[in-house]
Design goal:
With 113 residues, the chain is of the alpha+beta class. It has helices at residues 2-20, 41-52; strands spanning 26-34, 61-67, 70-73, 78-80, 98-101, 105-112. The strands form two sheets. It has a three-stranded mixed beta sheet, covered by helices on one side. A hairpin with a 4-residue loop joins strand 3 (70-73) and strand 4. Helix 1 (2-20) packs across helix 2. The chain is elongated. The structure holds zinc ion. Zinc ion (ZN) binds at residues 73, 75-76, 89, 91-92, 94.
């Protein structure tokens, strides 16, 4: 499952940060996830629950800030929101490969103690 490796790398980062702050418990992880990052919310939560078991983040809450997708059409010089996985410009109906936003997968912040 794709989400497990994502969560695992987020947690590695979180554990490093918590350790550098001298914290021994993580209460919350705030992630920023793009709408077209390919992540399934339920799978992410499930992966989080199983990966944090027995760690300093075992009681932590996973907070996700969703970022909507934005594409750019060089033909029309316009940005648009793609529908699902189809990056077709609504004006000229050309396929674009310029994705300006929506693929984020970041750990924004942590709450530790
Ligand atoms: Zn266009």
């Amino acid at each position: 499952m794709h989400e497990v490796s994502i969560i695992q790398s987020m947690l590695d980062l979180a554990f490093d940060r918590a350790e550098s702050q001298g914290a021994n418990q993580i209460h919350q992880l705030n992630l920023r996830v793009g709408a077209i990052s390919g992540v399934v919310p339920e799978a992410l939560q499930f992966a989080f629950d199983s990966c944090t078991e027995g760690t300093i983040a075992s009681d932590a809450k996973l907070e996700i800030e969703w970022v909507k997708a934005i594409c750019y059409c060089p033909q029309c010089h316009a940005e648009f929101t793609p529908y699902d996985w189809v990056y077709v410009c609504p004006r000229c109906e050309r396929l674009t490969h310029e994705i300006r936003q929506g693929r984020e997968l970041q750990l924004i912040s942590l709450e530790v103690s």
